[in-house]
Amino acid sequence: MRILLVMGAGGEGGAETFFTQLALALHRAGVETQAVIGPNEQRFSTLRSNGIETLVLPFRQILDFKTKPGLKARIKQYHPDVVLTFMNRASKLCPKGDFLHVARLGGYYKLKNYKNCDHLIGNTKDIVRYLDQAGWPEGRAHHVPNFASVDRDALPVSRAELDTPEDVPLIVSLGRLHENKAFDILLQAAKLENRPYIWIAGEGPLRVELEQMARDLDVAHRVRFLGWRNDRGALLATADFCVFPSRFEPFGSVMIEAWAMKCPLITTRTAGPLEIATADKDALMVPVDDAEAMAVAMTRVIDEKGLAEGLVKAGWDSYEKAYTEEACVQNYIDLFTRLLAEREQVFR
After folding, report:
1. How far is Cα 298 from Cα 33, in angstroms, rounded to an integer?
2. Crossing angle, helix 183-192 and helix 207-216, to 10 degrees?
3. 162 alpha-carbon distance from chain centroid
4. How far is it, in rounded angstroms, from Cα 15 to Cα 190?
5. Which domain holds residue 13?
6. Sign of torsion, CA 278 280 284 290?
7. Whole-angstrom Cα distance, residue 318 to residue 264?
8. pTM over 0.70
9. Signal peptide position in this chain (predicted)?
10. Looking at the 3D structure of the chain, how many domains does it have?
11. pLDDT tens by residue, 86-119
C-alpha cells in the first residue's frame, strides 16, 4: 500500500502536529509513505530526516499557479493507492485520479471543500454524525481517533529555567492561543486558586491580550507563556496536573497526551472530552466558561488525597485501550485495506 499524505497549512496547531506524527507512524509501521506540505521548514526537516520523501508546494490562497499542477505531477509520479488529505485547501486542490481519496477531519468543516473525496474520516464519532446529518453519502464517513503523539520517555523540563519553584503545584496547559481554547478562563481560575504556577505552551492571536490579562488579574508572576513547543511530553512529565480549558473542542489531543504521560487531567464539558473521557474517573470535568468550577477542580487535585493517583490510573487505562500509536495506525491500515478492496470490486 502506498499512501500520500497532503496538508497545505503552513502553521502550527493540533491538526498540523497530528499530520506529521501520523506520517511518521505509518512509515515506522512499514507503510510506503510520502508527503506533500505547505511551507514549514521544521515539518519538512522532520519528515525528510525520518526517511519520508516530502514535496513543498505554496498552497497560497490566491494567485497560486504551482500547487495544483505540482500535486497532480507528484501523484502521477508516485502512483499512490491512497491520498490522505488534511484540512480544506489540500482536500479541495487534490485532483481526481486512479487512487482512493480520503480526507481526515478534526472539526465540523463545510463539506463544499470535500466534494471530490471518496471517503471522509472523523476523529470523533460526533464528527461522523455531523457528516451524516450534513448529507455526506451513507457509509462513506468513518471514525478513526487520534493517538497520543508524545515522547513517553521524555525527561522533565527544568523548573528553575522557567523561574518556577520546586515546591509549588505546577499546571501545564497546551493549545493555540485562540478564543476557543479559553485560556482566559484558566487565568481567572488561577486568581481564585492562587497556589499553582501555570505554564501555557502555545502560540496564537491572543497572546498579547492574555499576557495583559494575567497582569490585570495579578497572576502574571505565576504564569509562564512558553510559545509553541514540540516537547509536550517533557512538559507534561514536569506538571503536577494538566488543565484543558477549551470552550469548543471537537477532539482534544491534549487529553490523551496527558493520559499517556500519566498526568492528572482537568477538562471542560465540550464535545470531544464528553465523548472521550469519563467524569471523575479519568478526568475532572467542569462546565465551559466557569472559572469558579475550574478553580474548585484545581483545589481538589491539589488537596484531595488519592484523587490525582486515581485519575492517572484511569487515564492510563483509557489511553492503552484506544489511543496508542499502534492501535491508531492499525485502524488506518485496516480501513484503507477494506476501502481499497471495495473499490476494486466496483471497478471489476
Report:
1. 43
2. 10
3. 25
4. 28
5. 2-147+324-347
6. positive
7. 13
8. yes
9. none
10. 2
11. 999 999 999 999 999 999 999 999 999 999 999 9
